[in-house]
Design the sequence.
């Protein structure tokens, strides 16, 4: 006789143990996340708008003034949009597209490259005083480019100067990295002193190349030492653009791992970061960005030092926001500085590297004083 067993009754949940349910999101945390996102969008949007305004003003002002409405109208007509007025001056259109726009574009690319390189160097060296100009990377790239001028090398066509500047910047950056490391860390004093020594050596190299070169080569080397955007052409923009934009894109990809590197080498290795490979890869990107800026503009110092610091004061130390904001800020700074160089004195074109050093030198001195006060020393 078959017995039918009753179905098992479900076991009641213990008293005081309610069925778990998804925890509601903390309103305060969600509001903080929304504020942070709004701050990022606002910062990048504001810098983008400032760059647009700086480009319009930079293209319009000079010995031949073109009103902003005509500058915008000229661009829109080139894009196939019949909006806005064209330049009223007979030479206005040629001045914009043959002289002003190439110069403004090169200034924006060089400024973005230098500022991004400075943000990367500060992240990979772990201190706020790293900068392609301060530690001698820019001057090392300039020596290589000056060697091309004196020796009249053309093995890579229009890319010869940029390629040699890249190699010079890479070698100098590796030397700075190796000489400033001690016991697994980089000291500020060692970094700055190494940069001073390398700048002295590269200055001697530039002087020797001036001695070897003819009059035209000497004038071009003086251009490298002072930095200038005079005579910028579209073909130069075509060489600089892929180097600068490609380097900035790679820097954006490296930004999350640089945030992990800021926790320290041991913590970064614990979460799976290959610290030495990351450092060497970042050094190569810095060399590419520096070469992009130096190859046709000469030595423009302190952009990579000033811009990341100002951005960090507003946006914080996170590289995911610091890198793109520094790129935009550097572009704005150099476009405005170039406008100042062209218009400060009538019928004169001041060296832009002189102007950036005039502003960046006191800022660097203030930064040294601030680092000594806050850290209690120079290490």
Sequence:
């Amino acid at each position: 006789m078959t017995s039918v067993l009753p179905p098992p009754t479900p076991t009641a949940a213990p008293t005081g143990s309610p069925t778990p349910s998804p925890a509601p999101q903390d309103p305060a945390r969600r509001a903080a996340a929304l504020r942070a996102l709004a701050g990022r969008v606002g910062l990048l949007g504001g810098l983008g708008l400032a760059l647009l305004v700086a480009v319009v003003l930079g293209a319009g002002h000079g010995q031949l003034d073109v009103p902003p409405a005509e500058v915008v109208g000229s661009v829109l007509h080139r894009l196939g949009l019949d909006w806005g007025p064209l330049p009223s001056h007979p030479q206005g259109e040629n001045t914009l597209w043959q002289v002003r726009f190439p110069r403004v574009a090169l200034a924006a690319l060089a400024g973005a490259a230098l500022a991004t390189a400075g943000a990367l160097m500060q992240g990979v060296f772990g201190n706020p005083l790293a900068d392609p100009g301060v530690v001698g990377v820019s001057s090392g790239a300039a020596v290589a480019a000056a060697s091309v001028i004196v020796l009249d090398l053309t093995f890579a066509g229009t890319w010869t100067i940029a390629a040699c500047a890249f190699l010079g910047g890479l070698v100098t950056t590796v030397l700075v990295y190796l000489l400033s490391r001690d016991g697994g860390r980089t000291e500020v004093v060692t970094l700055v002193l190494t940069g001073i020594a390398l700048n002295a050596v590269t200055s001697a190299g530039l002087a020797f190349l001036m001695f070897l070169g003819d009059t035209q080569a000497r004038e071009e080397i003086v251009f490298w030492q002072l930095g200038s955007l005079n005579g910028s052409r579209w073909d130069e923009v075509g060489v600089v653009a892929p180097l600068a934009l490609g380097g900035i894109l790679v820097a954006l990809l490296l930004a999350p791992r640089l945030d992990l590197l800021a926790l320290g080498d041991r913590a970064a290795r614990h979460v799976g970061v290959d610290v030495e490979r990351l450092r060497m890869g970042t050094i190569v990107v810095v060399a590419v960005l520096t070469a992009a800026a130096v190859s046709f503009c000469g030595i423009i110092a302190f952009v990579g030092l000033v811009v990341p610091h100002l951005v960090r004061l507003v946006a914080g130390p996170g590289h995911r926001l610091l890198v793109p904001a520094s790129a935009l800020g550097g572009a704005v700074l150099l476009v405005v500085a170039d406008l100042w160089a062209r218009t400060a004195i009538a019928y004169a074109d001041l060296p832009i590297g002189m102007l950036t050093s005039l502003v960046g030198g006191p800022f660097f001195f203030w930064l040294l004083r601030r680092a000594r006060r806050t850290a209690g020393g120079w290490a």
Summary: The beta strands are 181-182, 185-186. The longest helix spans residues 27-60.
